[in-house]
Write a structure and sequence with these properties.
With 116 residues, the protein is α+β, with helices and mostly antiparallel strands. It is 32% helix and 20% strand. The radius of gyration is 29 Å and the shape is flat. It starts with a helix and ends in an 8-residue tail after the last strand.
């Protein structure tokens, strides 16, 4: 079987494919996990009795007071970061081209317009 040139030289890994029987087994395992998780959440909700429930007023009571703390922290705003891909070459000890790759670089957005 011949592989197309664009696919042969692609650096992406091929997606994993499952055989039909493995697909059915995976679907059954996923359904069993969902059923188990659903049953456990229903059980947990069922155990909480209304007598133990806390009202909103009871919940917020410890946080209510007449004494207020106002802390004003003046932080410098974060600069927006941009990502771009830079072309890199790999060379041997004699300086001959061996391979290339693209590196993702994060830097402040204003720098991407500057000459590198």
């Amino acid at each position: 079987m011949t592989t197309p040139n664009w696919q042969h030289h692609s650096k992406k890994e091929a997606k994993r494919t499952l055989k039909p029987q493995a697909m059915r087994q995976a679907k059954k395992r996923r359904a069993a996990l969902k059923a188990k998780l659903l049953a456990s959440t229903v059980a947990l909700v069922g155990f909480a009795s209304p007598a133990q429930a806390v009202t909103w007023g009871e919940f917020w009571e410890p946080f209510k007071s007449d004494h207020h703390h106002h802390y004003h922290h003046h932080h410098r705003p974060r600069r927006a970061m941009c990502e771009h891909r830079e072309y890199r070459e790999v060379r041997d000890s004699r300086g001959r081209f061996v391979d290339y790759y693209y590196e993702t670089v994060r830097e402040p957005c204003w720098r991407k317009y500057r000459d590198h």
